[in-house]
Task: structure prediction
Amino acid sequence: MIRSAHIDTFARDHLPPPEELPEFLFNLPELRYPDRLNCATAFVDDWIAAGGGSRDCLISPTERWSYAELAERINRIANVLTRDLGVVPGNRVLLRGPNSPMMVAAYFAVIKAGAVVVATMPLLRAKEIAFPLTKAEIRLALCDARLADEMEKTKPLAPLLDRVVYWGRGTVDSLEALMNKPSYEHLTACDTASDDVCLIAFTSGTTGVPKGTMHFHRDMLAICDTFGKYVLRATCDDRFIGSPPIAFTFGLGGLVLFPLRVGAAAILLEKAAPDDLLAAIGKFGATITFTAPTAYRNMVGKVAAHELSSLRKCVSAGETLPAATFEAWLAATGIRIIDGLGSTEMLHVFIGSREEDMRPGATGKPVPGYEARVIDEAGHALPPGTPGRLAARGPTGCRYLGDKRQAEYVQHGWNVTGDTYIEDADGYFRYQARSDDMIISAGYNIAGPEVETVLLTHPAVAECGVVGQPDDERGQIVKAYVVLNHGFTADIALTRTLQDYVKSTVAPYKYPRAIEYVTSLPRTETGKLQRFALRRKAAESAASRLAS
Result:
């Protein structure tokens, strides 16, 4: 292990023990990084040193920043962190904001100062925000002022949080006011180690309890030097655009790291619904887009009404890409979608082929730098055509923050993803199903037990079970089976009440789009809820609707 620059050793102290880590592969020349590395320098400062400071870097509907302008803002924020707010290397800093240039500047400023980013999606509610604050022992948050209401509600739930600094507020204590000092224009990057933690990305598991995944400075470069270089193959003339939040690792890679690694520009949209995305592609001349299969399905019938001549590459992830969607998009645009499988644990895509090698219905082959195989319950490799658990390894891998579930995700040196796959005779991996209770709806991962927990706090609900129901538009929708308490009537009004209740408690995208009232739930003799029976019931309900 290389000498760490972290004064606050929390992150390194909470890494899994060596025997629980996956085997890491550095089998490409690009992956042999120096021992001392601050990735903020590689993504931003190196381009300025090479004479590219005037190039477009970040574009939004209201702003356009060059690489030099981004660098200055990064330096100013990093100086505020270290000189005004007392941040030392290794401290964790929470970030909350929509996709915007300021969010990107804050992200790299935390990293350049040697601290650790913990970014959260704008839709999260106070209870959800409080968990990473507590788990990662975070004392400082930087937040877009438009998200202040929920952030303020979080304070009583996270007693370790000492201070929240807002940007976009226009007050004397705002981040912009603190940044506005002449001596803050320059900053030397913290001399971090390549294996110092710079990012803790939280994700929800099957139990609904989030898991913090820890990533090093070298990991941020590794996803660019594998998937970015060998599959995406972008150039400095590309303009990236997409819908995933950059607090989500899919969005971080697709809208920040991949473009900045090659000196390209990123177009950041705070609103990126399919109609918004289509309009922005033409308006800004986007060449590469990242979004979920649901969005491609929604957009395909509207392509003719928009100017998309600049678009040359499309990437899909977040849920399996149906062959029908692949074929429909190809017919409408002439572009073959690059499908990809990634995870927060792996940081980004590790299975996915170049567009000319893609096969409809297949996720693809392992990205150069990674290996994958299908295994049985004992960890033995299965022959082609046999369904089993997907296992992968490469330059990135799972490092949970102080979590016993490390042993579930990492087995025999491999990352075991929780997906069931088949490898065909030609080495293409084909998705079969989730191996757990996670619901994947429109690219969002939603833990059914988390929604159950919320519903059970409503006085109308006696029991409930939440599963994914197949849906042509969203892949899956959240469906709740509810047993009511005495005195409540199962009707449309109550359904709307329960849906609004969930929306007000957790991120709105997690609410049950379908609620079915039942008199009892299937359980084992010991009282355990049989979710597989509910999933079967939901699938039958969806099939019945289609047949009618």
Notes: The chain has a mean pLDDT of 94. The longest helix spans residues 67-84. The longest strand covers residues 461-471.
